[in-house]
Amino acid sequence: MAMVNYTTTRYFVLEGVSSDPQLQLFLFVIFLLIYLLTVVGNGAIMVVTRADPHLHTPMYFFLFHLSFLDICYSSVTVPKMLQNLLAGKKNISLPGCIAQMTLILLMACTEVFMLSAMAYDRYAAICKPLYYVRIMNKQVCMRLVGGAWLISILHSLTNTALVLQLHFCGHKELNNFSCELPSLLEASCAGTFISKMTFLTSAMIVSSTSFSITLVSYICIISSILRIRSGEGRGKAFSTCSSHLTVVLLCYGAAFARYLRPNSASSVVLDRLFSVEYSILTPMLNPIIYSLRNKDVKAALGKLLGKMKGI
User: Fold this and answer.
1) What pTM did the predictor assign?
2) DSSP designation for 3
3) What's the CA dihedral at 159, 162, 164, 166 to 10 degrees?
C-alpha cells in the first residue's frame, strides 16, 4: 500500500469576493464604506438607546445588544477582507482561520436568538399589553440575552472542537472571503462525516428553535392586529414591529438561501453573494431600517445631533 506524504497546512488562501485584479481597489472602497457605515450606524443606535430615558424599554434593550452584535459580526470578517483586497497574497493562518470561524458561529447564533427575543417582546407588547411590564421585566430581559450568548457559546465551541481534530494538508484555497465552517470542512484531508453531521444537527436545532419562536410570535401578533377594528389602530400596532420583521426577513432569507439551497443549485458565486448579504450588508442595513421606520429612534437621534451641534 502506497504511503501518502501529507504536508500540514499552516495557512489558507481566501479567494475573496472577486479574483479580478482590476476590481480590487473599487471593492476595497465599497466595503470600507459599508464597514464604516455599519460601525457608525450601530454605534449611534447603541448611544441613543443608552442616552435617551424614553428608550429604556425592553425593545431598545434588545436593540442595543443587536447593534453590538452587528458591529462584532462585521468586524470579524470585513477588516481581513479589506486587508486581502490590497495585499498580493490573500492568506490567513490556520489558527486565525479557526478563530474567525468560531467567532462567526458565535455571532450568527447569538444574533438569531436575539431576533427571537425581540419577536417575543413584540408578542408580549401587542398580544398581552396589560401584562407586558410584568412579562418583560428586567430579569427576564437579562436572562433572554444571557441565554442567547450561552447557547451560542456551546454551539460554536462544540463545532470548533471537532474542527480542531481535522487534518488539513497542502496549500488549500477557500472559496469564500471568510473562514466559514462549510468551507473549512471542504478543505480537510481527513474524514469530515462527524463534523458535518454535528454542524448540520446543531445548525438545524438552532435555526428551527429560533425560527419557531419568531414564527409563532408573529402568527400571534398578526392574529391580534387583524382583530383590531380601526385601520389606524392596526397601522399603529404593525408599525411597532415592522422594523424588526424587515430585519428578520433579511437575516433568515439570506441564511436559508445560503445553507438550505439544494446541491443542484449550488454555486460559488451565489454562496459568496449570500454570505456578503447576511454577514456584511445586513449589519449595515439594521440601523438604517430601525432609524427610518422608528419614530422614537429618529427623535432620539435628532436630539443627540442637536446636542452635538450645540457643543
Assistant:
1) 0.88
2) P
3) -130
